[in-house]
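Record pair follows.
FIRST:
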Amino acid sequence: MSAAMATNMSSLRNALRFCVLILPLALAACVTSAPQQQATRYIDPAYMAMYAARPDEAHPLPATDITEVDPRFLRREVAYYGREEPGTIVVDTAARYLYLVREGGRAIRYGIGVGKEGLAWAGRAQVGRKAMWPRWTPTASMIKREPERNAKWAGGMAGGIENPLGARALYLYNNGNDTMYRIHGTTEPWSIGQSVSSGCIRLFNQDIIDLYNRVPTGSPVVVLRGTSLPDVEQDEQRVSFY
């Protein structure tokens, strides 16, 4: 074999070796990797229905987005170990739960958000008045704390979707006197399970409608502060609309 042919064969081998090395990289450059998809949390269809839109309302109520809500704050029936009689509302401000006591050691449990006004009072009361799509008037302290947001409503805001009291309100009285304590809906569903800047005890609008339908005027209410009821997570089930 001549020197020229040997040189050509060596060059060919080097070229083939280079192609073998570069081919996988070239192919990889032609493939677009699929974007990583964030895992979507499964939501039980029963809960989606529970918090669905309510077009039958005086102010058509949109569905509540519960995709980012801690599931333990969704409405459910649980075992109840307290001493209260059936029909009593028990507000556990520390744990962010409201219980409606039922027969047979059971209760309906609702997630709540607690405002500063909600933390300022504890004790026993009765549901002295109930209102559908209630009118809201901010307190003097709320106006002072957030004047840009609240001062324009010093004369009151009519009921509606934007009203901070939401779809329903229960007004608590003690010996015939208004305690100024309210259990109501909310325009901020993300606040359920949280401590918030203002308001009393707030529930999802679908939940306050459910509670409103279950309790008559005169129903007893117990508000706990600093103590919580025993954990009942191990014995629970969903509760449908009233």
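SECOND:
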Amino acid sequence: MSHAFEQQPRESAKAFAAFSLYLNLGPQRSTAAVGKQLGKSQGLMERWAAKFDWRSRVAAHAAHLALAEREAIEVTARGNAAEWEKRETELREQEWTLRGELIEAGLKVLGKFKDGSRGATLGDVSRAFEVASKLGRLATGQSPDGENTSGDKLPALHVEVTVALEKIYGEPEVAAPPAIVDVQTVPALPEKTA
């Protein structure tokens, strides 16, 4: 697919070179500056600029660069999301393994406590089971207090993706929720007669 900022049909190599110079001059570009650098008349540069629509081609080039930048940001965000998903899975596996080890150790200590052996208190056993329970809940997507948090598992990733999307599409417009007003009927006060 040919882009508008590439050499056009019936555009000579010299005319395209002049356009390329015009494009690369940046925001301060002008046909006069191109003519001066190429040693050509400004009139010739203006004719080429009109005939080959240099302004639209510059705009097409800017749009192409913006699209490429957005796509690169999206690819980066997807890659970061995949990496965070992998890290989360590894952490959950580690927590699940530790949970099992803590339960096993807690059961051994509880057995010793039951048979009167020394070495651990009931408080130690209780703490081991409490930590094991918290690790188990975290590993299965719950908060340490047992609430399900599966909708917001990766707040850091959410922030990263939000920043990338805001960079791509601009600041989101958030509509304020409508206010709810609770109105009670109050009986009217009797009027005073003087």
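COMMENT: Residues 86 and 179 are 42 Å apart (CA to CA).
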